[in-house]
Amino acid sequence: MRPYLEQIQAAQESRLVLNDVQKEERFAAIVRDAVREIFSEERGRIFQRRMEDMALYLFETKREQLAQLSLAVALQLAEGDLGPLDISFLTGLVQKSLAFYLSQIKEKASEEPSLIVKP
C-alpha cells in the first residue's frame, strides 16, 4: 500500500497544473494498479474465500441480496485476471483504505511540532 500512497502524494504535490478530470483519472489509475496488485495471486484467493464465507453467512442470516453481491465479487476474483475488470467493491475498498491512510499521514504531520517559532 505504501508505494500507492507515495504515488498519490506525489500526484497531489506535483507542480504540473492539471484540471479536475485529469486529477481524477490519475487517482483512478493508481487505484486500478493497487487493486490489480493487492487482489492478485494468493491474496486474491484468500479474499475470494472470505467473500464466499461472507456470502454464506449473509445467506444464512436471510440477507439474500447482499449474499448474491458477495458471491458475485468472489466469482469475479475466481476468474483471476483483474486487468480489464472494474470490480466496484474492490475499487471502493482500496479508495477508502488509501483515503484513511492519507488522513492518518496528514494528521500525524499536523501534530509534529513546527520549527518555526510564532511570536
Could you please describe the fold and organization of this structure?
76% of the residues lie in helices and 0% in strands. It is mostly helical and 119 residues long. The longest helix is centred in the last third of the chain and has 24 residues, at 88-111. It has helices at residues 2-13, 20-38, 41-60, 64-79, 88-111. The chain is elongated and about 65 Å long. It is built from five helices and no strands. The mean pLDDT is 82. It has two domains: 1-39 and 88-104, no CATH class; 43-81, no CATH class.
The major β-sheet equals:
none
H/E series, N to C?
Answer: HHHHH
Assign a percent range to the helix content. over 70%
Cα Rg:
19 Å
Low-pLDDT residue intervals, each spanning 5 or more residues: none
Head-to-tail CA distance between termini:
40 Å
Total count of domains: 2
Helix run count:
5
In terms of DSSP E residues, the strand content is under 5%
Number of E-type strands: 0
Q: Structural class, please? A: mainly alpha
Describe the protein's topology:
Blueprint: H1 2-13, H2 20-38, H3 41-60, H4 64-79, H5 88-111
Which key features would you list for this structure?
mainly alpha, 5 helices
Quick description:
This protein has helices at residues 2-13, 20-38, 41-60, 64-79, 88-111. By secondary structure, the chain is mainly α.
